[in-house]
From TrEMBL:
Annotated Thioesterase domain residues: 20-127
GO terms, molecular function: hydrolase activity
UniProt-listed InterPro entries: AB_hydrolase_fold, Thioesterase
Lineage, highest ranks first: Eukaryota, Fungi, Dikarya, Ascomycota, Pezizomycotina
Protein name per Swiss-Prot or TrEMBL: Alpha/beta-hydrolase
Organism of derivation: Pseudovirgaria hyperparasitica
One Pfam family linked to the record: Thioesterase
Gene3D superfamilies: alpha/beta hydrolase
Keywords (A to Z) from UniProt: Hydrolase
Length: 272
């Protein structure tokens, strides 16, 4: 299904000095949806799960994946500034990679763009809420092999998140997350009509929180937040992708202009 990794999604116009954007795959393992984005006016690369076809799990979890993905980035961006990001799981991978790259002498992570990436852990006392399992839906032209690989990728993702040791930072040494923009959707994913009234999809456990649960993280992460229409699985659908593209472009421009300032309290989070 895939050829090169990273895959070139967009190329900037000659002479531009825009910081390249590297987007990591979502839980399904592919970067297919990123190819629908409008022009972001910079080089855009996508990293898919290189084990998508084999279904082989990552024994070392998200940390192992991220270490490997950093090496993939260096194939196309040997050194210099980058913006990391991704949809859903892609944002978590970006966070893990940013932490691993703190002391890297070659790659300088200037910021991150998370597209509806929720904080992956529930709040204290929230664990009794019933969480519905996600079942991927496919178009009629999706091959049986691809359907099998996507389903396996989601299953592996859920298992890895159970054991993920979310990155820690050292604020006293000024080792902090890079400026991060969060693009969140407005609506919750519909659940079956016969589901319990407290049932929500896993991606909506923190939907009522402005920062999708990142308020619970031990470190200040989100510097700017904005909303797009639809629910978690629709940002790249034809009716929504134009707005999603615009928000990603604005977020990258803000990071490049250093508009996103690190702050230590939620009240400082900007709207964009």
């Amino acid at each position: 299904m895939f050829d090169e990794n990273p895959t070139s999604i967009q190329e900037a116009s000659p002479g531009t000095n825009a910081i390249p954007l590297v987007l990591m795959h979502d839980g399904g393992g592919t970067t297919f949806d990123y190819h629908f984005l409008d022009d972001l006016e910079r080089d855009v690369w996508g990293i898919h799960n290189p084990r998508f076809n084999s279904g082989e799990p990552w024994i070392g979890g998200l940390a192992e994946m991220s270490t490997h993905y950093i090496e993939l980035i260096k194939k196309v961006i040997p050194s210099g500034p980058v913006i990391l990001g991704g949809w859903s799981l892609g944002g978590m991978l970006a966070l893990e990679m940013a932490r691993q790259l703190v002391d890297d002498p070659e790659i300088d992570v200037k910021g991150m763009v998370m597209v509806d990436t929720i904080y992956p852990f529930q709040a204290p006392g929230q664990d009794k809420k019933f969480v519905a399992q996600y079942k991927p839906t496919f178009n009629s032209y999706t091959s049986a092999a691809t359907q099998k690989s996507v389903t396996a990728s989601f299953a592996n993702t859920f298992e890895m998140l159970k054991t993920w040791k979310i990155p820690e930072w050292n604020e006293t040494a000024d080792i902090v997350p890079p400026p991060t923009a969060l693009i969140r959707v407005e609506e919750s994913v519909p659940v079956p009509a016969d589901a319990d009234k407290d049932t929500v999809m896993r991606v909506d456990v923190h939907r009522q929180r402005r920062l999708l649960g990142w308020e619970l993280y031990d470190y200040h992460l989100i510097d700017a937040v904005t909303e797009i229409t639809g629910h978690h699985y629709t940002p790249f659908k034809p009716e929504n992708v134009e707005l999603t593209s615009e928000k990603i472009k604005v977020a990258c421009s803000m990071i490049q202009r250093r508009v996103l300032k690190k702050a230590r309290d939620e009240s400082s989070v900007k709207q964009f």
